[in-house]
Design a protein that fits this description.
alpha+beta; DNA Polymerase, Chain A, domain 1; 7-stranded antiparallel β-sheet; 5-stranded antiparallel β-sheet; DNA-binding
DNA sequence: TGTAGGCATGTTGAACTTTGCTT
DNA sequence: AAGCAAAGTTCAACATGCCT
């Protein structure tokens, strides 16, 4: 029997691999294949053949042979080693440890690679990839990859996104569609709801389940307690699903969509069950191991930690790309020119890799091949996206794919010098930086020779100004730079007005990535300022946006500095008045901060931590990663728990605190104009009754 | 140390200084 | 003038988020 399908998962059981597939017809198939895990051993004081003969008789050994492998990605010559296959997965660790301790063994290799990675790598398979299968009943006869395409639509993998809202007697289970919009609500008595939902689960037979981890744990625990059908169990490390299914968080699914998730899993080369939630660094590490094994490179197990850098190295280390201090203030008719995916492009086009930084680059570097593939895919989906209607399903798929790949590509450069990277080294990181810097300096020189003045440059972008420059003028320059430097560059934005901001602290020195401006074709662009941050309340963010629009809604720079400025100040003052008059609804003042660690692990009683603890007391579950919504009620109170209140639990707020936040947001954008909204603010006289209200309120509290 | 690094900003709380009161 | 506590100030450490 032969058919094609998508490889959902591979798991291991004794001496077998269990493959889960979803066929094109929508059927789920489970197939068994023989799998004897292997590792390599390097002989010490004897030949590989002698070591092979020595190991041949071992009880746990299913097979042993000599092999020729490369000792590192740098080394092209092969050394003779012994390949040892273990009879079953359960005995793998024991035999590996035993061989590792043998006096006639110098080292073992490939021992800490996941079985999943080895299985897939040795068969050139990709998780969630399209495969052609031959099977004999339940036994796999052969499996071969079908080459990946640039199709936007994700494979026919079934996904179920849900959230639990269960009480002791009644409850609700919500399911969500691809945009995380509510799709259906199971509601009623808790037991009934649970039974209905588990029936739905069984009918749908999802391959990937998206939910909060705790919701899945609760679902699995409850279904066990109530004697329903079980789809998994809860371990110390969290919920585990049976049957080739994987779990993913709602936030990852919401950001990447199924298409983006598939990109991440396929890049990582490990089944979604393991890799769906991995951050970019681990994904890159995994992919590097896969590529190294494919290239016949031995992988030494991770021995302890990388050497820590010495003080001297720290002092002399080449940190970061080049930054030209921004020319703080208001500018007219500016364009920003960006190199497209500069760092991955440098790696690919200049052939920079861990093993060749110090050498002649006569052959393609280790990381170049799969970085090029990733870059090509990302750029394809990124550009295709522009041609699709913004709210179409295809657009979202494209966006998810390009976003997933973008995260990995950014980190490929960052991870090159990371301590955890077993192939990497700091020289590679430095080399990419050096090349980026040279490219930027060359670009600036070319721009200057054509009469452009650089206002600001950072890593891969230049902000340029030339009196009377047109759109075409900037585009010609970008094309000339692309041509000259050999890296793609394009006009990213054209500004009617651009304000580059200083650091808030002192001295008026320009800040990296802090600016705002009005674009030539309408619209605004902001970077780094309060309204870009999630932990800025909606009201403060909106006021800052309105102030910017008021400021820059002018025809000339002079007008900006006079009428624009006074309009912006009026916006800020109006906002402060509304706060003091309690006209601002409390929902608009909600601040959202992520709890980055478990509440008890904080040293400082930060507002969101206090709010989280208050929530925990009332039975709301708060864990590392929860988004905490809170409102300031008395920011200056000596007791941290009196400073804030979880959002949605009352109407009062600390108006002066929010006045302060609005003024800070105003100061951020108006600093280059020599105006401080705090000084312009004179609180109006307060009526006696207001003090009385305050007094009675505190007595009640 | 447990997987990107770098920059900027905001918050906390301990250490330190000033103020104001009493003797 | 000394003694003391409260109030105010400073600053390093902690913490989050954005950007590429």
């Amino acid at each position: 029997m032969g058919f094609d399908g998508w490889l959902l998962d591979v798991r291991f059981d004794g001496d077998e691999a269990v493959l889960w597939l979803r066929t094109a017809e929508g059927e789920k198939v489970k197939l068994r294949d023989r799998y004897t895990p292997d590792f390599y051993a390097e002989p010490l004081g004897m030949t590989a053949a002698q070591l092979r003969d020595l190991l041949e008789e071992h009880d746990l050994v299913a097979g042993v042979s000599t092999a020729r492998r490369r000792s590192s990605i740098r080394e092209m010559a092969e050394t003779e080693v012994v390949n040892i296959r273990v009879d079953e997965v359960g005995n793998y660790r024991a035999l590996l440890d035993e061989v590792d301790r043998m006096p006639c063994v110098a080292a073992t290799y490939d021992g800490d690679l996941e079985h999943e990675l080895k299985y897939l790598c040795d068969r050139s398979l990709i998780p969630l990839g399209h495969v052609e299968v031959e099977a004999d009943g339940r036994a796999l006869r052969s499996i071969a990859p079908i080459p990946r395409t640039l199709e936007v639509e994700p494979p026919p993998i079934r996904l179920l996104a849900f959230a639990l809202k269960l009480g002791s007697s009644r409850g609700e289970i919500l399911t969500f569609d691809e945009n995380l919009e509510q799709e259906y609500a199971f509601a009623g008595p808790t037991r009934q709801v649970l039974r209905d939902f588990l029936d739905h689960f069984a009918d749908l037979d999802p391959d990937i389940v998206a939910s909060r981890p705790k919701d899945l744990s609760d679902l699995l625990t409850l279904s066990r307690l109530l004697g329903h059908r079980r789809f998994g169990r809860v371990t110390r490390d969290g919920p585990v699903l049976y049957g080739g299914r994987a779990h993913v968080s709602l936030s990852t699914y919401g950001r990447l969509s199924l298409a983006g998730l598939v990109e991440r899993v396929q890049y990582t080369r490990l089944p979604a069950r393991l890799s769906a939630e991995w951050a970019a660094g681990r994904a890159i590490e995994s992919r590097q191991c896969y590529e190294a094994r494919r290239r016949g490179v031995l992988l030494l197990h991770r021995g302890g930690f990388q050497p820590v850098m010495t003080m001297r190295e720290l002092l002399y280390r080449d940190s970061g790309g080049l930054i030209f201090t921004p020319d703080v203030g208001l500018h007219e008719n500016v364009a920003s020119l960006d190199f497209e995916s500069m760092f991955p492009n440098l790696i690919v086009r200049r052939n920079i890799s861990y093993e060749n930084v110090r050498d002649l680059r006569d052959r393609e570097g280790f990381i170049v091949d799969f970085t090029r593939e990733t870059l090509d895919r990302r750029l394809y989906f990124k550009h295709l996206r522009y041609r699709l209607p913004k709210d179409s399903q295809e657009w979202r798929w494209c966006e998810g794919r390009q976003l997933a790949l973008k995260e990995i590509l950014f980190c490929t450069y960052g991870y090159s010098g990371c301590w955890a990277n077993r192939f990497g080294n700091f020289d590679t990181f430095t080399e990419v930086n050096r090349q980026a810097r040279d490219a930027l300096v060359e670009s600036m020189n070319l721009a200057r020779s054509r009469g452009f003045h650089t206002l600001y440059g950072n890593n891969d972008s230049l902000f340029l100004k030339r009196p009377g420059a047109t759109r075409e003028g900037f585009q010609d320059l970008a094309a000339a730079i692309s041509d000259h430097v050999g890296l793609p560059m394009a006009v990213e934005a054209r500004f009617r007005f651009l304000v580059l901001l200083p650091q808030k602290g002192e001295t008026g020195i320009g800040a990296v990535n802090r600016y705002y401006g009005r674009l030539a074709d309408g619209g605004h662009k902001h970077r780094g300022i309060e309204l870009r941050r999630r932990d800025t309340s909606p009201f403060v963010a909106r006021i800052q946006e309105e102030a910017i629009e008021a400021l820059l809604g002018c025809e000339t720079p002079e007008e900006v500095r006079t009428e624009g400025l006074s309009r912006a100040l009026a916006v800020l003052e109006g906002a402060c008045r509304r706060l003091r008059d309690r006209e601002v609804p409390v929902e608009a003042l909600k601040t959202s901060t992520v709890l980055r660690r478990d509440p008890e692990r904080y040293k400082a009683r930060l507002p969101h931590v206090a709010a989280a603890e208050a929530l925990a007391l009332t039975g709301t579950r708060v864990v590392k990663g929860s988004l905490i919504d809170y409102v300031y009620v008395d920011a200056g109170h000596g007791n941290p728990f009196r400073r804030v209140r979880p959002a949605g639990r009352g109407a009062g707020y600390d108006a002066e605190k929010y006045v302060q936040l609005v003024q800070e947001a105003g100061r951020s954008i108006l600093m280059p104009f020599g105006v401080d909204p705090r000084e312009a603010d004179v609180p109006r006289p307060r009526r006696l009754e207001e003090f009385l209200v305050g007094v009675s309120g505190s007595v009640e509290g």
